[in-house]
Amino acid sequence: MAVARRLAPLTRDSLAELPSPCRSCTRWELDAVARGRVEAEGCGAEAKAEWLSSTLLDWGSCGLVVRVDGEIAGYALYAPAAYLPGLAAYPTSPIAPDAVALAALRVEPAWAGRGLARMLVQGMAADLVRRGVKAVEAVATTRGDSECLVPADFLLALGFTTVRPHPRTPRLRLDLRSTSPWREDVVEAALDRLLGRRRPVPLHREDPALFRGPARPESS
Protein backbone atom coordinates (compact mmCIF):
# COMPACT_ATOMS: atom_id res chain seq x y z
CA MET A 1 0.00 0.00 0.00
CA ALA A 2 1.31 3.45 -0.93
CA VAL A 3 2.18 5.79 1.91
CA ALA A 4 1.88 9.59 1.95
CA ARG A 5 5.20 11.38 2.40
CA ARG A 6 5.24 15.12 3.06
CA LEU A 7 7.83 17.70 4.00
CA ALA A 8 6.98 20.53 6.38
CA PRO A 9 8.92 23.26 8.19
CA LEU A 10 10.18 22.48 11.67
CA THR A 11 8.06 24.42 14.18
CA ARG A 12 7.67 24.38 17.94
CA ASP A 13 4.69 22.09 17.55
CA SER A 14 6.50 19.60 15.34
CA LEU A 15 9.61 19.86 17.53
CA ALA A 16 7.52 18.50 20.39
CA GLU A 17 6.67 15.48 18.21
CA LEU A 18 10.29 14.51 17.61
CA PRO A 19 11.41 11.34 19.37
CA SER A 20 13.69 11.50 22.37
CA PRO A 21 16.52 12.46 22.56
CA CYS A 22 16.20 14.65 19.44
CA ARG A 23 13.58 16.99 20.89
CA SER A 24 15.77 17.80 23.90
CA CYS A 25 19.29 17.52 22.41
CA THR A 26 21.12 20.85 22.39
CA ARG A 27 24.50 19.66 21.09
CA TRP A 28 24.42 22.23 18.29
CA GLU A 29 22.23 24.97 19.70
CA LEU A 30 24.27 25.70 22.87
CA ASP A 31 27.92 25.95 23.73
CA ALA A 32 29.46 23.39 26.08
CA VAL A 33 28.98 25.46 29.25
CA ALA A 34 25.34 26.30 28.58
CA ARG A 35 24.60 22.75 27.46
CA GLY A 36 26.07 21.33 30.64
CA ARG A 37 23.87 23.60 32.72
CA VAL A 38 20.75 22.70 30.73
CA GLU A 39 21.46 18.99 30.99
CA ALA A 40 22.03 19.27 34.74
CA GLU A 41 18.69 21.03 35.13
CA GLY A 42 16.89 18.62 32.80
CA CYS A 43 15.42 21.37 30.66
CA GLY A 44 16.84 20.49 27.26
CA ALA A 45 13.46 20.41 25.52
CA GLU A 46 12.60 23.89 26.76
CA ALA A 47 16.02 25.26 25.76
CA LYS A 48 15.74 23.75 22.27
CA ALA A 49 12.25 25.17 21.79
CA GLU A 50 13.46 28.61 22.86
CA TRP A 51 16.39 28.36 20.44
CA LEU A 52 14.05 27.39 17.62
CA SER A 53 11.67 30.29 18.30
CA SER A 54 14.52 32.79 18.42
CA THR A 55 16.14 31.47 15.24
CA LEU A 56 12.86 31.43 13.34
CA LEU A 57 12.24 35.06 14.26
CA ASP A 58 15.78 36.20 13.55
CA TRP A 59 16.86 34.13 10.52
CA GLY A 60 13.82 32.22 9.30
CA SER A 61 13.17 28.56 8.57
CA CYS A 62 15.91 26.40 10.06
CA GLY A 63 14.61 22.88 9.78
CA LEU A 64 12.30 20.39 8.10
CA VAL A 65 10.35 17.35 9.15
CA VAL A 66 9.22 14.53 6.89
CA ARG A 67 5.90 12.91 7.70
CA VAL A 68 4.81 9.45 6.62
CA ASP A 69 1.06 9.02 6.85
CA GLY A 70 0.98 11.98 9.20
CA GLU A 71 3.66 10.76 11.62
CA ILE A 72 7.11 12.34 11.80
CA ALA A 73 9.67 9.91 10.40
CA GLY A 74 12.72 12.19 10.26
CA TYR A 75 13.99 15.72 10.45
CA ALA A 76 16.80 18.06 9.37
CA LEU A 77 18.22 21.06 11.22
CA TYR A 78 20.27 23.78 9.51
CA ALA A 79 21.32 27.37 10.17
CA PRO A 80 24.29 29.73 9.85
CA ALA A 81 27.15 28.80 12.14
CA ALA A 82 26.50 31.83 14.36
CA TYR A 83 23.28 30.13 15.51
CA LEU A 84 25.01 26.81 16.20
CA PRO A 85 27.76 27.40 18.79
CA GLY A 86 28.09 23.66 19.37
CA LEU A 87 29.97 23.38 16.07
CA ALA A 88 32.99 24.97 17.72
CA ALA A 89 33.67 21.74 19.61
CA TYR A 90 34.82 20.00 16.43
CA PRO A 91 38.36 20.36 15.04
CA THR A 92 37.19 20.87 11.45
CA SER A 93 35.17 23.97 12.29
CA PRO A 94 34.52 26.76 11.51
CA ILE A 95 31.96 26.58 8.73
CA ALA A 96 32.77 28.87 5.79
CA PRO A 97 31.12 32.31 6.07
CA ASP A 98 29.21 31.87 2.79
CA ALA A 99 27.63 28.57 3.89
CA VAL A 100 24.81 27.37 6.09
CA ALA A 101 25.55 24.44 8.38
CA LEU A 102 23.62 21.18 8.19
CA ALA A 103 23.71 20.28 11.86
CA ALA A 104 21.39 17.29 12.17
CA LEU A 105 19.79 14.84 9.78
CA ARG A 106 17.96 11.86 11.22
CA VAL A 107 15.48 9.28 9.98
CA GLU A 108 13.80 6.89 12.37
CA PRO A 109 15.16 3.33 12.04
CA ALA A 110 11.74 1.99 11.05
CA TRP A 111 11.88 4.17 7.92
CA ALA A 112 15.55 3.73 6.99
CA GLY A 113 16.27 2.92 3.37
CA ARG A 114 13.12 4.64 2.05
CA GLY A 115 14.80 7.74 0.62
CA LEU A 116 13.57 10.06 3.37
CA ALA A 117 16.99 11.47 4.25
CA ARG A 118 17.53 12.39 0.60
CA MET A 119 14.10 13.96 0.55
CA LEU A 120 15.06 16.12 3.54
CA VAL A 121 18.28 17.24 1.85
CA GLN A 122 16.36 18.14 -1.30
CA GLY A 123 13.89 20.16 0.73
CA MET A 124 16.71 21.96 2.54
CA ALA A 125 18.39 22.76 -0.78
CA ALA A 126 15.16 24.13 -2.23
CA ASP A 127 14.70 26.36 0.81
CA LEU A 128 18.27 27.66 0.78
CA VAL A 129 18.64 28.36 -2.94
CA ARG A 130 15.45 30.44 -2.78
CA ARG A 131 17.10 32.46 -0.02
CA GLY A 132 20.31 33.03 -1.97
CA VAL A 133 22.55 30.76 0.12
CA LYS A 134 25.66 29.68 -1.80
CA ALA A 135 26.54 26.45 -0.03
CA VAL A 136 25.82 23.96 2.73
CA GLU A 137 28.56 22.56 4.94
CA ALA A 138 28.44 19.80 7.52
CA VAL A 139 30.77 18.35 10.12
CA ALA A 140 30.24 14.69 9.26
CA THR A 141 31.36 11.39 10.74
CA THR A 142 33.36 8.58 9.15
CA ARG A 143 31.98 6.19 11.74
CA GLY A 144 28.51 4.72 11.91
CA ASP A 145 28.03 4.88 15.66
CA SER A 146 27.16 8.56 16.05
CA GLU A 147 23.54 9.70 16.38
CA CYS A 148 24.53 13.35 16.27
CA LEU A 149 26.64 13.55 13.10
CA VAL A 150 25.64 12.79 9.53
CA PRO A 151 27.60 9.92 7.91
CA ALA A 152 30.22 11.27 5.51
CA ASP A 153 29.58 8.52 2.95
CA PHE A 154 25.92 9.48 2.73
CA LEU A 155 26.71 13.14 2.07
CA LEU A 156 29.44 12.33 -0.45
CA ALA A 157 26.91 10.26 -2.39
CA LEU A 158 24.72 13.38 -2.67
CA GLY A 159 27.48 15.49 -4.19
CA PHE A 160 29.15 16.96 -1.09
CA THR A 161 32.93 17.25 -1.30
CA THR A 162 35.53 17.23 1.47
CA VAL A 163 36.88 20.69 2.24
CA ARG A 164 38.70 19.83 5.46
CA PRO A 165 39.75 16.21 5.94
CA HIS A 166 39.79 14.50 9.31
CA PRO A 167 39.95 10.81 10.24
CA ARG A 168 36.72 11.03 12.26
CA THR A 169 34.90 14.32 11.62
CA PRO A 170 35.66 15.76 8.16
CA ARG A 171 33.95 18.93 7.02
CA LEU A 172 32.02 18.53 3.77
CA ARG A 173 30.51 21.11 1.42
CA LEU A 174 27.74 21.18 -1.18
CA ASP A 175 27.76 24.05 -3.68
CA LEU A 176 24.28 25.50 -4.28
CA ARG A 177 25.25 28.15 -6.83
CA SER A 178 23.35 28.48 -10.09
CA THR A 179 26.02 26.58 -12.06
CA SER A 180 25.40 23.41 -10.06
CA PRO A 181 22.66 20.77 -10.46
CA TRP A 182 21.15 22.23 -7.27
CA ARG A 183 19.58 25.16 -9.14
CA GLU A 184 16.24 26.21 -7.71
CA ASP A 185 14.27 25.05 -10.76
CA VAL A 186 15.90 21.62 -10.75
CA VAL A 187 15.41 21.14 -7.02
CA GLU A 188 11.79 22.24 -7.28
CA ALA A 189 11.19 19.78 -10.13
CA ALA A 190 12.63 16.97 -8.01
CA LEU A 191 10.43 17.96 -5.09
CA ASP A 192 7.41 17.91 -7.39
CA ARG A 193 8.19 14.32 -8.26
CA LEU A 194 8.77 13.35 -4.63
CA LEU A 195 5.64 15.02 -3.31
CA GLY A 196 3.36 14.10 -6.17
CA ARG A 197 2.75 17.68 -7.29
CA ARG A 198 1.96 18.41 -10.93
CA ARG A 199 2.97 21.35 -13.05
CA PRO A 200 0.97 22.43 -16.07
CA VAL A 201 4.10 22.90 -18.19
CA PRO A 202 7.44 21.08 -17.60
CA LEU A 203 10.37 23.33 -16.82
CA HIS A 204 12.80 21.11 -18.72
CA ARG A 205 12.59 18.52 -21.41
CA GLU A 206 14.94 16.48 -19.26
CA ASP A 207 15.47 17.15 -15.59
CA PRO A 208 19.00 16.10 -14.57
CA ALA A 209 19.16 13.65 -11.70
CA LEU A 210 19.71 15.35 -8.38
CA PHE A 211 21.39 12.39 -6.77
CA ARG A 212 23.89 10.08 -8.38
CA GLY A 213 26.01 7.19 -7.20
CA PRO A 214 25.22 3.94 -5.42
CA ALA A 215 22.51 3.77 -2.81
CA ARG A 216 23.64 4.54 0.71
CA PRO A 217 22.11 3.68 4.06
CA GLU A 218 19.99 6.34 5.68
CA SER A 219 21.79 8.59 8.13
CA SER A 220 21.07 8.55 11.81
Short description:
The chain is built from six helices and eight strands, in the order βαααβββαββαββα. The protein is α+β, with helices and mostly antiparallel strands and 220 residues long.
What would you say this structure looks like, in words?
- The chain is an alpha+beta fold.
- It has one domain: Aminopeptidase, CATH 3.40.630.30.
- Helix content is 28%, strand content 21%.
- It has 6 helices and 8 strands.
- A hairpin with a 6-residue loop joins β7 and β8.
- The longest helix has 15 residues, at 44-58.
- The relative contact order is 0.14.
Keywords:
220 residues; alpha+beta; eight-stranded mixed beta sheet; 6 helices; 28% helix
Q: Percent range for helical residues? A: 25-40%
Write down the domain tally: 1
Query: How much of the sequence is in beta strands?
Result: 15-25%
- The dominant shape is globular
State the total count of DSSP E strands: 8
Radius of gyration: 17 Å
What are the low-pLDDT stretches, counting only 5+ consecutive residues below 50? 198-220
Question: What is the distance, rounded to the nearest whole angstrom, between the alpha carbons of the first and last residues?
Answer: 26 Å
The CATH first-level class comes to Alpha Beta
Helical stretch count?
6
Largest sheet: 8 strands, mixed
Q: CATH superfamily membership, which one?
A: Gcn5-related N-acetyltransferase (GNAT)
Element order: H for helix, E for strand = EHHHEEEHEEHEEH
* Quaternary structure annotation: single chain
What is the architecture at the second tier of CATH? Answer: 3-Layer(aba) Sandwich
